[in-house]
Amino acid sequence: MDPTRVFVKNVKRVVFKVGTAVVTRSDGRLAVGRVGAIFEQLEALNSQGYEIILVTSGAVGAGRQRLKYRKLLNSSFADLQKPQVEIDGKACAAVGQNGLMALYDSLFSQLDITSSQLLVTDNDFKSTDFRTQLSQTVNSLLALRSIPIFNENDAISTRRAPYEDSTGIFWDNDSLAALLALELKADLLVLLSDVEGLYSGPPTDPNSKLIHTYIKQKHLGAITFGDKSRVGRGGMTAKVKAAVSAADSGTPVVIARIHPDLCFHFLGSGFVAGNIGKVLEGQRIGTLFHKDAHAWVTFNEFTAREMADAARDCSMRLQISGLAKSVRTIAEMEEPIGRVVTKTELADGLILEKTTCPLGVLLIIFESRPDALVQIASLAIRSGNGLLLKGGKEARRTNEILHKVITGVIPETVGEKLIGLVTSKEEIPDLLKLDDVIDLVIPRGSNRLVSEIKSSTKIPVLGHSDGICHVYVDTSANMEMAKHIIMDSKLDYPAACNAMETLLVHKDFSSSEGLQDLVVELSHGGVTLHGGPRASARLKIPEVQTFHHEYNSRACTIEIVDDVKAAVDHIRKHGSGHTECIIAEDKQTAEYFLQHIDSAAVFHNASTRFCDGMRFGLGAEVGISTSKIHARGPVGVEGLLTTKWVLRGNGHIVKGDEGVIYTHKNIVSSAS
């Protein structure tokens, strides 16, 4: 049974809930463009006969931002020097609700839709008469094609903790939406979020996977939730609690991300934009909650994708032994410190040496994966550098144990303080100011993390903010080889920075069956395809807004180019300087690509996934650098060293170079 189709056949009445994170921007202001895109989708559904009920959050956040601004305008300089008192939440709710509904009414009016406002409190639902009247009023509004908009009346709510999760008939707008779906006999509840759906762990963790169908017997207690919403009261924990409650009562629920694009999808006799339309088409969007879900997939039954994912997870666990091997490889390296790179006789008896030495103190900030701590610590010790580590909070305890193990075996003559573990996120800004003590910062994680650190410190930063890796398929490519390389580059580990994000195809290759075969292979692998102008027109796939996009998931961009020169131009314009690959049998074409691509790594007939310190024989890596200064590509021990000049003489002086006969004779080099 296909669970994505079960609930869409007879859907007419739908409750949509939009949270504060959806309707407001990161600075607290209302996201007018995003809200407008949502309303366009709701208008399209309304015109096709769907009965739409909207539950909204955002009043408190919008009101707080507005009141803070007014307070600032009316404050004297002396007032601003005093400790600032937090504005009363109920006042924020009253002001924000007014502004929120004014915006909603204006946007719906532009779409020729009548909206109506209904503010409710927890106590209201204790009255049977209220519930009866509520149902009658909503039915009347829907019959008039008006869209009822619900919000909790926080301004006059008497609940003890109106701005935190608490007990009661409902405790936030997610649970209010679930309650209304039950009271108003809705056929479907859609909880719109700022993430794709429910994940097995924090969405920022590359090992987390999207759960398409929630099965209580399988997933309850097995999910690690991330942070709460950046604003508002809820977050995914509140959404799941509300979704389970509604589904158990008989109303199917979908948690999905709102994509406010203008890519319209066919639905019935019209078009609907973005994920809202896809949900009602029965497409596999977000996470589905249904009371019969346990019957669709038994507890011990897995889909092909789940079996493949489980196999990959087990494979990754085997790499703990691979990690130990990489550490041993580093330990068995030739001594890297004090190595003579060049030795030159400047003049008789005057010898100049260029030797390797540690950089000094490194600050490494990394997310999630604790195996990074072991790799980084090993490389730092081998290269003689002091080290400060800040790992992701998801692996805090594991990091603490690993740190204790590693520092416990450092000789007393060196001291266990060689490696420090930073446990608080609040310490990072202070550390980034220590440019007189810390010599290099290496961030490992999302492009957002890298960009934020680069903009927050004077200390040199080694790393890359994007991993937009390209694979170019030339007209001379071997088709079977191309399939294997492309599938491996994309699917071996889609979240890795060296995974393929853009596939470029020669125009002659694209006109044959080759491109269609590649598309079929990628689709079978679960890859969502997006296209540039030429590819989207030919393949009938959604067109991308920008080529400079790192998916970090089972998705990629395809574009058609005229030849290898056009491919090189495309990569120069839209690439991030990470890793690029050409698949070609013609050696002259391949050589042109290898010589003209200016990225940290460039491959011929090999997967982009080979760009890795362990695979390069470096033992491990602290990261991959796209910088052209100092280290570039996978950074191992060599990348954590610098050089110094050592000059040995016997009373030599310059004195205007009088009497000095320069020989500049090479004595030894690193090659020897």
TrEMBL record:
Cite a single Pfam family from the UniProt record.
Answer: AA_kinase
- List the catalytic activities from the record: L-glutamate + ATP = L-glutamyl 5-phosphate + ADP; L-glutamate 5-semialdehyde + phosphate + NADP(+) = L-glutamyl 5-phosphate + NADPH + H(+)
Entry-linked CDD domains: ALDH_F18-19_ProA-GPR
Please give the GO cellular component terms listed in this UniProt entry.
cytoplasm
Q: Which residues form a coiled coil?
A: none
Q: What is its EC number?
A: 2.7.2.11, 1.2.1.41
Where is the Aspartate/glutamate/uridylate kinase domain positioned along the sequence?
A: 12-256
Q: What is this protein called?
A: Delta-1-pyrroline-5-carboxylate synthase
